[in-house]
Amino acid sequence: MFSKASFERDCANHSSKRVLQQMLPAGWRFAHQTALDLISQIEHLAWDDRADKLDAYFTRQADGMLGSKRMGAMVGAQLSSMSDATELPTPSDQAATFATWCRAVTTGVMIDLEKRLEIEEPTQALTYLVARDWHFARSAAAWVAENGMAPIAEAMKSLPGYAIVLLATSPNDTAERFLARDAFWEAVQTKT
Fold this sequence. Notes:
Strand content: under 5%
Number of helices: 11
Radius of gyration: 16 Å
Helix content: over 70%
Number of strands: 0
Distance between the termini: 43 Å
């Protein structure tokens, strides 16, 4: 098990800037500014409101980086029906770039914002699962072991941006991918 003291010591030695320099060597400056902007928007909010703001960010990023055709391909539409498929990067490359970016920015936000590991809400656990820091991942895994995935699945039903990030992150035919896909479709149906 990990220790709170170890996490606090690591947080003191890490900053979003340093972490983003390692995760995104070519784009860390823009990612760092994005993380700082997100922090200023969410630092005084409750977790459900934080998740809504992060979800809106993920959705905007998906629109910009993937577009509706690629998102459709990720969640199950047929890419072969796209007439310009040969001119676009493969969905897996584009999805990987999108997931790497969103997860890195989330990690930067969480490292600068969250100095504790105790998870209180499903949206916090979901955010920790998206982050690419092992402290957050282990904390989320411990929370899931105690509470199960159902609360996270329920929270994700209103957070399509998170679902897209998890879809882009998860390999084909995993439980996480099916969970994210179903949550994405339910969120889309609820919002339309």
